[in-house]
Amino acid sequence: MEYRTASETNGKHVAEYQNGFNADLHVQEEEGGRAGETETWSKLSRIQRAYSTVLTELGEDVDREGLLRTPLRAAKAMQFLTKGYHETTQEILNDAIFDENHDEMVIVKDIDLFSLCEHHLVPFFGKVHIAYLPNKKVVGLSKLARIVEIYSRRLQVQERLSKQIAIAISEALEPAGVAVVIEATHMCMVMRGVQKMNSKTVTSVMLGTFQEDPKTREEFLSLIRKN
Amino acid sequence: MEQRAVQTQYAAGHGDPKKDAGSGTTCTGEVNGERTAAAASSSSSAVTEGWREERTRSVEDNEMSRPGLAAAYRTILSGLGEDPQRQGLLKTPLRAATAMQFFTKGYQEKIIDVLNDAIFDEDHDEMVIVKDIDMFSMCEHHLVPIFGRVHIGYLPNKRVLGLSKLARIVEIYSRRLQVQERLTKQIAVAITEALKPAGVGVVIEATHMCMVMRGVQKMNSKTVTSTMLGVFREDAKTRDEFLTLIRS
Q1: Which of A154, A161, B83, B111 could be bridged to B51 by S-S, CB 3.0 to 4.6 A?
Q2: pLDDT digits (tens, 9 = 90+) for B41-59
Q3: What confidence category does residue B36 fall into, taking pLDDT thresholds of 50, 70 and 90?
Q4: Does the distance separating the beta carbons of B25 and A57 come in below 8 Å?
Q5: Enzyme catalytic residues of B
Q6: SS3 call for A219
Q7: Do residue A17 and residue B57 have CB atoms under 8 angstroms apart?
Q8: Reduced 3-state DSSP string for chain B
Q9: How far is B11 from B3, CA to CA, in rounded Å?
Q10: Using the beta-carbon criterion (under 8 Å), do A125 and B99 form an inter-chain contact?
Q11: Mean pLDDT over all residues of chain A?
């Protein structure tokens, strides 16, 4: 793998790229917040113009009523769907880690997941099941779902997404073990290409005790099975 | 120059682009009141006249516009803050461009090509239903997928249609930038004009990713639209029978 820690994953890489990118946009640093807004707005208008081109190249009429504001809407939608690039695990987790004398498995399952395939820019969606064995530190339950959001709202590959979620939890909590299972439907396989409607892709990452001890893994997998 | 070629071809593909511009449905072969009447008036060549100028794109157009599309997608990738040079994204602009062209391939196809030889004279006047046709479309407002099922029923008037042709009609109209209401109507009108049946009913239930993945984010919401023409509209019992049969 080209990364070892969560901080080396596409989040940080993207931030560095953005910093280099800002120089091209001649953003005045002393303007502070206003600069941020101007830069965001000019990015948005670039994406907007790109979508206008897309519509024209597809043979559509950009002046018809239904498509008039579509470039703007599509650009904003795409920015929303990739908002994970601007969020970090530290921001959302810092205050929700509690000391608790609990060392039994904690599972949060059936977390809805929506992401974008980085190869075709088409959505894939499914469910994430997360479990961890706390080592005196537990995390607020919704934070697990928020970690999923950070990493899924990006251009992703399902394998990398599972790993990033697992490593993020590992680094934040230092638990005895973490397990992440994702089952998702890829629209790039359903809507185009092979066109297999009912196919699902399942990936899993087992760290720590979940990897070493088959019985722990067995317990987790049976608890997330649909009954 | 390629862009102008595309637009010229598009303009040539419709009788009155200026007249249709206001109605907001120029590119999707919309049948407004006038055209339907004109098509209905000539019975024998109804299929040819009604669907005369539907195709606005060709395979060659696709080849020509692909580099422009790929460049646009590269701009989108860098605008979102991603690095288009990283390994996973190197060929993404081209893949995304081809994928988008596939999702809008309905613009390349004409009803007449699909239907011409599969209409049969059959002495049958009971309801024919093809249900649970998987449908994939693109929301024209957000360029995000819509997917769901289409249920089609019609009452033949001595002419029946090859069953897969109903699914092919769905494909032609769904593989476009669409609005679910318009899609339903287009499918119903296409079948009406091709077959002249006693009635047609089309029901679509779909999930809109633009509502599920963003915006209100309601995971389980479904949108249901229906179009009932002919006997399905006039006779409540026929409509009831159709709706019951597609439910089971």
Answers
A1: B111
A2: 433 333 333 333 466 788 8
A3: very low
A4: no
A5: 139-142, 180, 208, 210
A6: helix
A7: no
A8: CHHHHHHHHHHHCCCCHHHHHCCCCHHHCCCCHHHHHHHHHCCCCHHHHHCCCCCCCCHHHHHHHHHHHHHHHHHHHHHCCCCCCCHHHCCHHHHHHHHHHHHCHHHHCCHHHHHCCCEEECCCCCCEEEEEEEEEEEECCCCCEEEEEEEEEEECCCEEECHHHHHHHHHHHHCCEECHHHHHHHHHHHHHHHHCCCEEEEEEEEEEHHHHCCCCCCCCCCEEEEEEEEHHHHCHHHHHHHHHHHHC
A9: 12
A10: no
A11: 85
Which is nearest to A118 in space by CA: A84, A67, A148?
A84
Q: What is the ipTM of this complex?
A: 0.78
pLDDT greater than 50 at residue A11: no
CA distance B221 to chain A (A): 14
pLDDT at position B55 = 65
Report, as an integer, the average pLDDT of A78-101.
89
The mean pLDDT of A219-223, rounded to a whole number, is: 95
Contacting residues for B231 by C-beta, under 8 A, at least 6 apart: B155, B198, B199, B238
Catalytic residue among A13, A86, A102, A120: A120
Check CB contact under 8 Å for B177 and A60. yes
Would you call A73 and B56 a contact, using CB atoms and an 8 Å cutoff?
no
- Written as one letter, the residue type at A10 is N
Q: Clarify whether A129 is annotated catalytic.
A: no
CB spacing of A59 vs B144 below 8 angstroms = no
Beta strands B177-178 and B159-161 are: unpaired
d(CA A146, CA B27): 41
Residue with tokens 């917040």: A33
Q: Out of B76, B147, B214, name the one closest to residue A50 (CB).
A: B76
Task: For chain A, give the number of residues.
Answer: 227
The partner residues of B135 in beta bridges, in order of sequence, read: B148
Q: Is B87 exposed, middle or buried (0-12, 13-18, 19+ CB in 10 A)?
A: exposed
Q: Which residue of B has its CA nearest to A61?
A: B27
B78 pLDDT higher than 90: yes
pLDDT of residue B54: 60
Which of A57, A70, A112 comes nearest B143 by C-beta?
A: A70
**pTM for this one?**
0.78
Per the annotation, the verdict on A18 as an active-site residue is: no
Note the pLDDT of residue B14: 39
Gap between the Cα atoms of A144 and A149, Å rounded: 9
Q: HSE (CB half, 13 Å, CA atoms) of A24?
A: 9
Instruction: Give the pLDDT confidence score for residue B60 in this predicted structure.
Output: 86
Nearest to B152, CA basis, from B117, B120, B189, B123:
B189
Q: Token digits for A143?
A: 């934070």
Of B17, B87, B103, the CB nearest to A191: B103
